[in-house]
Description:
Blueprint: H1 2-27, E1 31-35, H2 60-63, H3 66-71, H4 73-89, H5 94-104, E2 108-113, H6 119-123, E3 130-132, E4 135-142, E5 148-150, H7 151-160, E6 173-177, H8 186-198, E7 201-205, H9 217-223, E8 227-232, E9 244-247, H10 250-258
Parallel strand pairs: 1-2, 1-7, 2-3, 7-8, 8-9
Antiparallel strand pairs: 4-5, 4-6
Helix pairs in contact: 1-10, 5-10, 8-9
Bound molecules: nicotinamide-adenine-dinucleotide (NAD).
Amino acid sequence: MRLSTTSLGTIVTLTEDIIKAQKIVKQSHRIVVFSGAGISTESGIPDFRSPGGLWTKYDPSIYANYQKFLHNPEKFWEMQREVTPLLENALPNPAHFACVELENQERLLAIITQNIDYLHQRAGIKKTPIFELHGTGFRAHCVKCRYSISREELLEKIKTEPIPRCDKCGGLVKPSVVLFGEELPQEDFSSAQQAAQDCDLVIVVGSSLQVYPANCIPGIAKDVGAKIIIIDQYGTDFDAMADVVLIGMAGELFPQIVK
Ligand code: NAD
């Protein structure tokens, strides 16, 4: 009885919030989608901080730290060998397609993503800029001579080399993702900050908003008067700044508010 009352209450609240979010989306014409790992969990790629996330298994200060990679690349590649097939096999889910829907409606100004999984591109985003604040797993480069190789070349390499090395100079090869202790790609970050200043709505999807400086983006937009919608399974520490918070699965909620 108590459970049913609670669940009925939740459904009513959720519906009101969805209607409110739909109205905000309808009134907005320069929307920024700010996505995190949570937009891709329904595509089979675990996030970092949720129960069962990658960090329950791999301590980021050991497995995802740039200095540690330089001195002990074995650990990094241990995690990569688990993540690589997941990235290979993942397909975009309805939350990624909701971004395409916004593009088709000519409302999407930019996608700012912390993800390295290329799923926004795979979903079919055509003309909207995608700023990849934490780089991409779909290219790799030598950390010594910067020689760049494709994802396909990297996949071939890791079949035979436990620690992939550059064919040109013998330096360490690393997917072009930003590890802790590395600079963000400055051009993408500047463009993302500009988009945050130019937008009228930021939809945060599946990010705990715990990683600095990427987590400054919604605040920059809020400061210039943009509205904020947060969609997250559990909620975030930044929920108080949002106009609407939708708690639940991105693949279910996001498509509902863009229709
Ligand atoms: P995070 O792990 O810190 O937070 C993920 C958030 O998504 C959590 O708040 C969680 O509640 C929410 N979430 C999980 N599944 C969800 C779902 N189905 N629907 C709605 N919400 C859901 O991730 P973050 O904020 O992106 O930051 C951590 C770092 O993780 C980023 O730097 C990113 O580069 C990296 N990362 C990327 C991928 C990827 O490319 N897919 C995967 C793992 C980690």
